[in-house]
Structures are given as structure tokens and as C-alpha cells.
Amino acid sequence: MTSMFQLLIDGESREGSDRIAVDVVNPATGEAFGSVAFASKSDIDETIKVALGGLRSWQAVPPWERGRILKDAAQRLRADFVRIANVITREQGKPLREACIEIERSADFLEWGAEQARRISGRIVPARAPGQRIEVQPHPIGVVAAFTPWNFSMALAAKKFAGALGAGCAIICKPSQETPGSVIEMAKALLEAGVHPAAIAVVFGDANDVSTQLINAPQVAKITFTGSIPIGKRLAAAAGAAMKPVTMELGGHAPVIVCGDVDPEATAELLVHAKFMNAGQICLCPSRFFVEAGIAQRFTARFVELANALRVGDGTDQQTQMGPLANERRVDAIARLVDDARARGATILAGGKRLDRRGNFYSPTVLIDVPDEAAILREEPFGPVAPILPFNDEKSMLERANGLEFGLSSYVFTHDGARQRRLVDALQYGVVGVNGGLTHQPEAPLGGWKESGIDTEGGIEILDPYQITKHVNLQ
Prior knowledge:
13 helices; 2 domains; Aldehyde Dehydrogenase, Chain A, domain 2; single chain; eight-stranded mixed beta sheet; alpha/beta; Aldehyde Dehydrogenase, Chain A, domain 1
């Protein structure tokens, strides 16, 4: 069965006016199962005009009612999770159980945005003169342009929809054309729940053309993006030229510090699960494993054993533990990083090759003896490759852990309270996981340090990026 993923503008699904569409490919088979419509320049112009009208209508809805609508949308996603999980797995590749978790997390974000919408409030500042009053009023910032990636296509869009719609903004979302269905499903749930049709749009097209047109449009007031550091820098520069605020969650290359006082086998088991979830295509994914020398051999042996035992296959198979990479580009990128490490003297203890089957499958890979100049230790791998790096000296290890431009996530494993605090304080990252994995739960803000982002998403601050303050001085 083939699918046609269309643009969603003013509550209606439609083809692009230029009738251009590209294939949507199942990464587990390498075969196209549908096509996605591309928006023309005139389609984007119309979308912006519609969104401006949608902004006026949606911001007039009382925050309490906006909260009710977002909660209703969350429940609609949960009620239809089996069907929607199959949509996610077919277009992105992740196992069905991971797709179900993504839907639940997306619903959580919509629900959290709903609750925070109901808490919108201003304040009165005591004035200096008799008969004077100062009011501080929060207002929706305006029309939001959101750009979202393919690795968690629904959940990463849900963060932005929850914040923007909760604040009373209209939102135009440009997801990856490789994973169109999941964002469309969420947008439809929001429309069915009662969001004003003009306040939501989902468009697809050439990433450079669409982003340039949206960022340059005077009617668009805010830019939010999740993706790589190079693209984030380009979008931020374009937004800066127009003095438009940005929220950006960008790439990571997370160091994992495994200290000698932990159980190496148990820690390896936990980290194998964290490393190879979604085939390693996670911004928060552990990607550089600094293991204290005294336990490095035991940790590595168990890590390799478990990596070799992972069942790799089609995400629709209930036995699959790791699905394919999302696209051919990722396979080529991982192969390049592994080949570079091998050429520089690294030893491959597990995997290290593309699997001989149709689809974008690369074997879970473990490397040791990796020199610092290897690309895998400097570029975000975004795939199923784990370099294990024994260390003796904590100070020099921390210099290596902090020595890149990335500052999104990091991990510490130790039961020594003083060392735990010392390492957490020393790590220059916006998120630190201690003795466990990391996931973004909506009740806490998340954002990167250094070049890994601007601003945060989630937490009681979830609406803040989508609000603007008005100071009113009353005599």
C-alpha cells in the first residue's frame, strides 16, 4: 500500500501547487512506500498568511481552554498508539516498542504544555509614585517557524507544538521529508481536539528554500530548530540578521565516565541499552566511553558480548532489539568513521561492517585503541558505534571529555559521593546522567551548553521561548 503525505494548511491536506513529490523510503527494506508533497514558494506564502490569521484566533482562546484542548490531543495520541507506532517504525526504522515510548513521550509534552498554559500569569510591580501601577504582561510571541529532524520525528516536534500552542502562538512546522507521517498524525490529533485550523501548518520541501523563506518572512516572529550544529549556526545567523529569537537543541558527543568502584558488568549492560537504542541516532546518546583502567577489561568484555548478541532487524519484528539506520547517508557516515578509526590503528571488537541484507543495517560496533585524532572522537557519530577509552588520570580524562565544541549531554557512573559531585561539577554539559541513562521528561528543562544549543525546552519554562513581555505603566 502506497501513501501520499500531503501538506497540512488551514486544516486541509493538499498537494503542493507545483505538484512536486519525493519518495518516502522504509529504512528496513530500502523500498519506497509512499511520497511526500513539496511546498512551492507560493504555498509557503499562503501558509504564512493563514498562520497570521490563526495567531489572532488561537491567542484569543482562554489559556484554560487551550490547556483542555492540548490535553485532549494527548489522549487522542495515546488512544491510537498502536496504529501510529507502525507509522513511525515504517518511516524511521526504530523497533515498535521504542515507537510506542516516543508516542507516550509526545503525549506527555502536549499534556505538560497544557498544564503550563493554565498557569500563564502576569504580575503587578509596586510603583514609586501614588496613583501609579506597573503591570508585567506575558503575550504570545507570534507565528513560530519550527524545524524538526527525523530521529524522534514526533517527540521533538511535540516539544515545540506544546510550548508554542500553550503560549497562544501559531506554528508552522517543517519536519524532515523522510519521516512525514508522525508529525502529520500529531497535527491531526491537535486539530481534532480543537486547535484552530489556521494555527497549525505542516509543510515539506527543500530544507534550504523553506527555511530561508520562513526566516525572512516579516510575519514569522520566532525560530526553533533541533538538528546539527552546522545547520543550527546557519539558521541562527539568518534569524539574527532579522533580529528574530531562536531556540536550538543541537548536536552532542556525550562522554561517559565509568569509575572503578562500580560493577563493570552491570554498568556495561545498562550502557549497551542506552548506546544502541534507536541505533545510536539520539542527540543524548552516550558516544565516548571513558572507563577507569582497573575495570576496563571486564567492562569491555561484557559490552562486546552484549553488542554481539543484539538482534538487529526490521522494527516491526517483535524480537528486534536494534533497527536500521534511518537513511543511506547515516550508513555511509558510520562506515567512514569506522574505516578512519581502523586506518589509524583502532581495534574492532564487535561489528564494524554493514550487514549483508537489504535496508540500512549496520552492525553494533565496539572499538578500542582509538587514537585521539580519529574522527569518531571528534565528530558526532549518530550511529551504533562505541569507542571505549581506558583512563588512569582523572584530570587529563576530563580535559578530553570537555575538549570538544559539544555540550549537550554527559554521564557519570560512580558510587563515591564526593567524586560524583566533583565530576558533575567539572563536566561542561547542559545535561548529566548519574548512574543511569538519560531521556527528556517534560517536567524538566533541557538544553545544550557551548555550541550544542541556545535556550531550553521543557520544564516550567516550556512556554518562555514562545512568550514576549509587555511592560504597562498605569497612571
